[in-house]
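Researcher: I need the complex structure. Ligand is adenosine-5'-triphosphate. Inputs:
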Amino acid sequence: MLDIKAISVVYGKNPLPAVRDFSLQMKPGEIVSIVGESGSGKTTLIRAVLGSLPGSGYISRGDILFEGRSLPGLGAEEWRDLRGTGISMIFQDSGAMLNPVRRIGSQYVEYIRTHQKMTKKEAWARGVEMLERMRLPEGDHIMRSYPFQLSGGMRQRVGIAMAMTFQPKLLLADEPTSALDVTTQAQIVRQMLELRDSCNTGIIVVTHNIGVAAYMADRIVVMKEGNIVDAGTREQILRSPSGTYTRSLLDSVPSMGGERFV
Ligand SMILES: Nc1ncnc2c1ncn2[C@@H]1O[C@H](COP(=O)(O)OP(=O)(O)OP(=O)(O)O)[C@@H](O)[C@H]1O
Ligand SMILES: [Mg+2]
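Model: Output:
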């Protein structure tokens, strides 16, 4: 499904790549977690996959194939078709993507209708259903709210609901739960697992919480300073981390929902 072939990503004239020689192959329905300290290149990597590198970032080497198509070569039109339905993304602060002066419902309905032929009423009902799946009860009420009337965690769940609406084949999630309380965190993690189980969605989840990685991921990739320093199945990484760096991450495992997953 996804084949990242030795990509390097560079920002502007900085001679040091933010991501260097990164390769990863994923099958449908697989969950890969990328962990690593701040600045190690995790966001850069998944933004490169989504074709939305910030600022002066560009892929200087390598290629990314999604279902056989080279992503860096796609035009704006092709990306519009692919984003949201084929590949979608949950940001660290998805709530910030919402337009502050429009109600959630009107934004959500518009989003749905750009991708699928539906009446406004049908799109509204679909939105409500997705919100309720994200543990936002009274979806109707949420739809009628402005973003500022919701808490940060609620806005994040709206963003996550939107990203999951079309059951994408690949979901890219950048610290999707770090702004949430542990109970909600666990719920969102379960929703992502359910999406994988019911729709065979492949997921790349970036997190500095190796507990989340241990709970969700089939495979774990550890990054440091733009390089892969450790990679393997969850069991391999957790039982016998190959580097001292991975070991130090494991030693700092926070707990999730009162349970430790490592
Ligand atoms: N817009 C940008 N312009 C220039 N350099 C950038 C930009 N975004 C990131 N970088 C650089 O790329 C490197 C990797 O940053 P990145 O945001 O990918 O790290 P990260 O692993 O996601 O960190 P965090 O855990 O803090 O989110 C850093 O050295 C950073 O300074
Ligand atoms: Mg980041």
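Model: Summary of the prediction. The chain has one domain: 2-94+167-260.
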